[in-house]
From TrEMBL:
Domain Sleeping Beauty transposase HTH: 1-52
Domain Tc1-like transposase DDE intervals: 149-289
Chain coiled-coil ranges: none
Pfam families according to UniProt: DDE_3 (PF13358), HTH_SB (PF25787), HTH_Tnp_Tc3_2 (PF01498)
Molecular-function annotations in GO: DNA binding
Gene source species: Hucho hucho
Record GO biological process: DNA integration; DNA transposition
PANTHER family: SI:DKEY-77F5.3 (PTHR23022:SF135), TRANSPOSABLE ELEMENT-RELATED (PTHR23022)
Residues covered by the Transposase Tc1-like domain: 71-140
Protein name per the record: Transposase Tc1-like domain-containing protein
InterPro entries referenced in this protein's UniProt entry, alphabetically: Homeodomain-like_sf (IPR009057), HTH_SB (IPR057667), RNaseH_sf (IPR036397), Tc1-like_DDE_dom (IPR038717), Transposase_5 (IPR052338), Transposase_Tc1-like (IPR002492), WH-like_DNA-bd_sf (IPR036388)
């Protein structure tokens, strides 16, 4: 049976007003286009409670007491990686038996949601200071300057499945709080390495690195792909090249090669892949690749 539309507060008040001036339920219903039973229910409610407002509806009692809610909220606030199973066990020891969905619903009402822990670079104080310096130096740079940057990086595509994830309980916009992140370091195994670049005008070249990359190979990649990408993207004169502080990128031979080619290089703070917009491009690339089959055939 379809749910009937709730009467507006004005209509309910009008029913009471007409009743008070002596009109019958049938007459009120006919005047307002309502059923007599509906009019009668509004009048009885007004006589009993002296109001036409909606009253609190009864429902199933909460399975977790206010004290229990405070306990599990305090637990996940101290340790966001606490699992629902851990919380179920904690409450059971306190005499309350609940299910994992009940834990999720309760914490959600407290503004806490289970999310995948964000992976962020492992930062030392010197890295933090370098990042702040970079941000302050470029705070007022016009959009045109950033549009004239070619961003580059290497990434890896896992051959079989995705990297494991950890879930944390957090509030909205707290994904980068240290308690809610997983520190990461570079390198790993079982993957395909790619080098790519892009600018505000679109993607540049994307190539597969088939061998272990060293400084010489990196310079060869730049020699064969960087300038052709800049030409294809129709970069303006004086465009700037960005790469991170990987040892291959900062090697003396690489710096000298870039200098001889007259490429302007953006000074980059260490341990700052999250500042490079190409990371968003990598994320999009990986999101469209199947996670249950080898990806070598796609490249």
């Amino acid at each position: 049976m379809a749910k009937t539309k709730e009467l507006s507060k004005d209509t309910r008040n009008k029913i009471v007003d007409l009743h008070q001036v002596g009109k019958t339920e049938s007459a009120i219903g006919k005047q307002l286009g309502l059923k007599k039973s509906t009019v009668g229910a509004i009048i009885r409610k007004w006589k009993t409670y002296k109001t036409t407002d909606n009253l609190p509806r009864s429902g199933a009692p909460r399975k977790i007491s206010p004290r229990g809610v405070k306990m599990i909220t305090r637990t996940v606030s101290k340790n966001p990686r606490t699992t629902r199973g851990d919380l179920v066990n904690d409450l059971q020891r306190a005499g309350t038996k609940v299910t994992k969905p009940t834990i999720s619903n309760t914490l959600r009402r407290q503004g806490l949601k289970s999310c995948s822990a964000r992976r962020v670079p492992l930062l030392k104080p010197v890295h933090v200071q370098a990042r702040l310096k970079f941000a302050r130096e470029h705070l007022d740079d016009p959009d045109e300057d950033w549009e004239n940057v070619i961003w580059s990086d290497e990434t890896k595509i896992e051959l079989f499945g995705k990297n494991s994830t950890r879930r944390v309980w957090r509030t909205k916009n707290a994904e980068l709080h240290p308690k809610n992140t997983i520190p990461t370091v570079k390198h790993g195994g079982g993957n395909i390495m790619l080098w790519g670049c892009f600018s505000a005008k679109g993607p540049g070249r994307l190539i597969r690195v088939k061998e272990r990359m060293n400084g010489a190979m990196y310079r060869e990649i730049l020699s064969e792909n960087l300038l052709p990408s800049a030409r294809a993207l129709k970069m303006k004169r004086g465009w700037v090249f960005q790469h991170d502080n990987d040892p291959k990128h900062t090697a003396r031979a690489t710096k000298e090669w870039l200098r001889k080619k007259h490429f302007k290089v953006l000074e980059w703070p260490s341990q700052s892949p999250d500042l490079n917009p190409i990371e968003n491009l990598w994320r999009e690339l990986k999101s469209v690749l199947p996670s249950d089959s080898p990806k070598t055939s796609l490249l």
